[in-house]
User: What shape does this take?
Amino acid sequence: MVIEFSKYHGLGNDFILIDNRHSPEPALAPETAVKMCDRHFGIGADGVIFALPGRDGTDYTMKIYNSDGSEPEMCGNGIRCLAKFIADLEGTERVNKSYKIHTLAGVITPKLESDGQVTVDMGAPQLTASEIPTNLGSPEAKVIAQPLQVTGKSWSVTCVSMGNPHCIIFVEDVDAILLTKIGPQFEHHPAFPQRTNTEFIQVIKPNYLKMRVWERGAGITLACGTGACASVVAGVLNDKCDRLCTVELPGGCLQIEWSELDGRVYMTGPAEKVFTGSYLN
Ligand code: ZDP
Assistant: This one.
């Protein structure tokens, strides 16, 4: 079988995009997505994203597989890529166009800006332990600067859901963190029944954070949009940063605002098409 695809990235967080507008069922099984994401034996990507028909009055539905075949609820960099992919498929004038996208984290609305960036209304963060989900503290309480034992050490963690789970840790020096060793131990810690994405954050200035991420189901990536949003929310909850903040990731910067007016998080960043191709399955 030949699978037509397009390759996009948002700050080096890269995705294989599939036109699946003809059916609500994704054209590929998760095992095929895993093979396509392999950087040596496949195309190479952090995930596979399908543009499916809209559900419940939305324009489109986004379905995503991580590179390990698991299915996350949401993907911030991925939805910016999806917005550009849809504009390319529709062949429409892009500027100021917004789309209502159905995701497992609710309706998310990306908008194409005149400078080529994409701003996404990511919705409101969820903060109670049961929503994240984590079994740290009581189910109805927020998890802010709670101690968690990992690698024989106590870390102060703050948990935020942007539809998908995030565990945020503020550190003095993000470059000193041994991500490949520590990341998996957070991801698979019994405190997180759905596993977790883990962000290490260094506060450079109140309006500028430096972040490194270990993603659930994908490992080290160059950027994580939902993670950048969750980190600014965590920074505000800990009085460490402003509500409007630049987040520097290994792949570049995102602008994040946790709006005081409506409580929603807005993310602005780039999304680029790299190539198209045919994959032989
Ligand atoms: O929650 C998860 O399992 C993540 N690995 C999903 C992907 C998140 C992403 N990096 C983002 O930008 O939000 C794509």
Summary: The domain at 146-263 is CATH 3.10.310.10 (Diaminopimelate Epimerase; Chain A, domain 1).
